[in-house]
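Morning!

This is the sequence you dropped in the shared folder:
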Amino acid sequence: LFVCLFVMDAPTPALQEGEPRDIVEWATMILKEAVPEVKRDLTFRAAKLWKAGLLSHNVECPPPDMPSRQDDLKVVDPRDMKLGKGGTLQSRIAIVHSLANIEQWAIDLGWDIIARFGCNKFGSEHTNLPREFFTDFVILAEDEARHYDVLSKRLVELGSSFGELPVHNGLWQSASDTNVHILARLAIVHMVHEARGLDVTPNTIKKFERNGDETSAALLRVIYSEEIGHVTSGMRWFRHVAALEHPDKDVIELFHDFVRKHFHGHLKPPFNEDARMQAGFTPEWYEPLVGGKKKE
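The structure's back. Tokens below.
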């Protein structure tokens, strides 16, 4: 007796009436969406259509000055965020809530670099960004949407929900400060800040482990592993655009120049050298920027 198993391929997605035909239009639409769950679902939809090859990437569609947010969110200065050390349930809720907020901004940052810079031309020959650039940041936005999804659901499991605690807009401030050029954006947001996440997340995981919250710790391990690839993408496209815009300049020196100009403060150790190394972000990129060190 032979049993044949037929595996059905997932149906190929099709554009629906009224949906944007270009990934830049999708990016701007998602940036204008205030409800995080809708932002998440639109991100998943756009990523699915992009991966199926159904969207172009050449329609200029300017992004908003700032992504939309729900009116009932209480926004505070990042320095006023009180998270604690995870020893109480309320502290663990505060940490997860803060991380969900960061991931919502990270969704927008993935789309904003596409909407703001995707149609620019670079270098003396006015070169377009290749399709691979859009793919990397669509995947990044999709990852961040999935991260927001699991963290917001974890909040519900802990007896809370997203929006019940204050949030901050610190990450978007860095985006606003780097609207001047894609190299500034890549250097500060997608290299410095993303790599900082690699530095601090292991300690956050330990907070949950020490206090018996293995479920939250497991979620953060998955998120942490995926963030390494985001640093890699930032480096890849910094190198790419730098070669077009500054072909005679050492790429690491150029990175230092952009960080010194656009990053507030100095890079602070300790660094997660192993994770940074996995991303290709080796010490010569960041160690000279510690504590205001000057270029040799």
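Headline: The longest strand covers residues 121-122.

More detail when I'm at my desk.
O.
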